[in-house]
Each structure stands twice: as C-alpha cells, then as structure tokens.
Amino acid sequence: xxxxxxxxxxxxxxxxxxxxxxLTEKEIWGYKNVSYNEPYFMGHFxxxxxxxxxxxxxxxxxxxxxxxxxxxIETEERNMIFLGIDNVRFKGAVRPGDRLDMYVKLVYHRxxxxxxxxKMEAEAKVDGNLVAKATFLVGLFPNP
Length: 144
What we know:
By secondary structure, this protein is an alpha+beta fold. It has helices at residues 2-7, 53-69; strands at residues 19-23, 27-33, 78-90, 99-111, 116-126, 129-142. 25% of the residues are buried.
C-alpha cells in the first residue's frame, strides 16, 4: 500500500486500489476490497448497496495510472488526467464484501516534451465474472 500511495495522489475516501498483484511493462493486475464501510453505500442504494459504476471505472483508471507511474523514479510530480473514456460496459454489480479484481493492458504510450499520453484497455471482475470494461485515454501533465 505504501508503494501505491507513493505513486498515486488519491487518498481516502477516493483511493480505489488496495493492492497490485503483478506489474509488467505493458500489463498490471490489482484489486480493491469493497467493504460495507464505503461511504457511498449509505445512499447507493439503501437496502440494496451497489458500488456506483463511475467508481468501478475510477478504480480501473487508478490502476491504469500505475502502469506508467509505477516504474518511475523521478522528482517531477505529474498528475494523470482523463482525456477520453470509450467503450464502457457494465456487465454486473459490485456489492459490499466483493473483491474487485482488475486487469489493465497498455495499448500505446507516447512521451512528448511537455505531456505524455497513453491508451489502455481495462476490465474488472468479481469472482471471475466480468463486471465492467473500458478503454482509457489519459494524459500526464507536470504540476504547475
């Protein structure tokens, strides 16, 4: 967890990656343990708690950022920002007590002088069943 916190700027209650299980140059696997204590379950939905789809997408996006940010040892801080999200599909619900297993594949990475761009394909599963998938286009920009 300390490694994740050193790479991502997200913090509670918006940190959506608990553990990275494997990282290669072009792929990453990780998960989030979804607990009853998540603040959004109070209102989404009372009596039938479901993790909001937008937060499932956010969890996959945070894991995506670790493909690029993970291997770096640099002093310049950068922020990852969505440039586009395509082909988002939800195939099932994520409920309290589930482990959201995620996989992301780097499709391309371009490093320009002032900005970087990357495209990634991501999927999320619960108990081996696909619950969401998406394609992300992200940019990494130096902090002002």
